[in-house]
């Protein structure tokens, strides 16, 4: 995924994924309200392979995000991949995936959750607030990791309306999950990166951020067209220093995702179609740290077998429980058995007991 929990394993997508029909799970509202749920719900066979990858595909007019479809694949080793059985692609763009406990979270249109105990996939509204409480309108949201108390951290760039073509400085933001929201609400915490336009080693606007642990330091990737820049920091929340900047991909692809493999190597993923090509695939390079010595990126997922012309925006994650949602994460003063809650299926930990928000009669309560 674009994140690290304990030690993250890298993923590669293979070009032989079976074609899956476009689903009719509900009326996506992504492009009138990007925070809205992306579908009406469906069920899958709970993924059990060690690795997960969210990505999107497109058939035509792919410069328009409304034509992108979010997909989810799993892999036993990062070399061979299959789509999660029962997955119904839905409208959305630049997705990412993260697992915590028995829930897999997918962003890209609102936030979808897979209950790994039942296989039920539900769709939820997502909200990200600025420090003043206003809507942050985040763009290119990616999971960055978890705090010690289990809360999720996301990384994103400002909305296009806040980035002028002649901007002299760019920022990448971090937001932390609001306690008790179960991955649906985030609050701006700090800026991961602030960099002057003139300081960029590749000119353009940094987009599509991704954060991962490479075994010795935290790494922030940003996409600049068909290039990828990397920055490092000693802690997840940074800041990521412009002085650590390196070029990971130069004209070899963008929209990156990095992940630490069990053998200590780092796998870096991009999407690239070659200049003048109408087809786009997901490519991978392997290195010692994801910062240098990557060499050439090789194709690992082609769009054709999926009935598409483009396969893009890889986001990889371990399919392991990660850090439990402990005190300060799922527990709040109002979380107790019998108390009202707001989102069906939401979980919270109180002491040694895990409560779930369930509908009882006409009310939602913690049980």
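-> sequence recovered:
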């Amino acid at each position: 995924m674009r994140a690290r929990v304990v030690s993250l394993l890298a993923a590669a997508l293979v070009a032989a994924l079976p074609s899956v029909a476009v689903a009719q799970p509900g009326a996506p509202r992504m492009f009138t309200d990007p925070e809205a749920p992306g579908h009406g719900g469906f069920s899958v066979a709970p993924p059990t392979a060690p690795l997960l990858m969210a990505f999107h595909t497109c058939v035509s007019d792919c410069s328009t995000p409304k034509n992108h479809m979010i997909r989810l694949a799993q892999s036993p080793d990062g070399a061979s991949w299959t789509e999660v059985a029962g997955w119904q692609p839905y409208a959305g763009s630049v997705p990412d995936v993260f697992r915590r406990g028995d829930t897999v979270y997918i962003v890209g249109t609102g936030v979808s959750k897979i209950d790994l105990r039942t296989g039920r996939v539900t769709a939820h509204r997502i909200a990200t607030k600025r420090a003043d409480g206003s809507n942050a309108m985040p763009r290119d949201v990616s999971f960055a990791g978890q705090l010690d108390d289990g809360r999720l951290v996301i990384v994103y760039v400002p909305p296009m309306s806040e980035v002028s073509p002649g901007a002299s400085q760019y920022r990448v933001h971090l937001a932390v999950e609001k306690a008790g929201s179960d991955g649906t609400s985030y609050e701006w915490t700090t800026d991961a990166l602030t960099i002057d336009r003139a300081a960029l080693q590749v000119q353009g606007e940094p987009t599509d951020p991704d954060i991962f642990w490479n075994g010795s330091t935290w790494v922030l990737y940003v996409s600049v067209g068909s290039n990828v820049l990397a920055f490092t920091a000693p802690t997840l929340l940074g800041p990521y220093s412009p002085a650590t900047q390196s070029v990971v991909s130069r004209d070899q692809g963008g929209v990156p995702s990095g992940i630490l493999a069990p053998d200590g190597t780092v796998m870096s993923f991009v999407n690239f179609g070659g200049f003048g090509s109408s087809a786009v695939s997901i490519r991978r390079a392997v290195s010692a740290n994801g910062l240098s010595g990557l060499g050439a990126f090789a194709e690992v997922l082609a769009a054709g077998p999926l009935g598409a012309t483009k396969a893009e925006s890889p986001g990889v994650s371990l399919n392991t429980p990660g850090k439990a949602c402990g005190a300060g994460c799922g527990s709040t003063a109002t979380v107790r058995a019998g108390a009202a809650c707001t989102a069906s299926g939401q979980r919270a930990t109180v002491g040694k007991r895990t409560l779930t928000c369930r509908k009882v009669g006409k009310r939602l309560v913690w049980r």
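The domain at 42-322 is CATH 2.115.10.20 (Tachylectin-2; Chain A).
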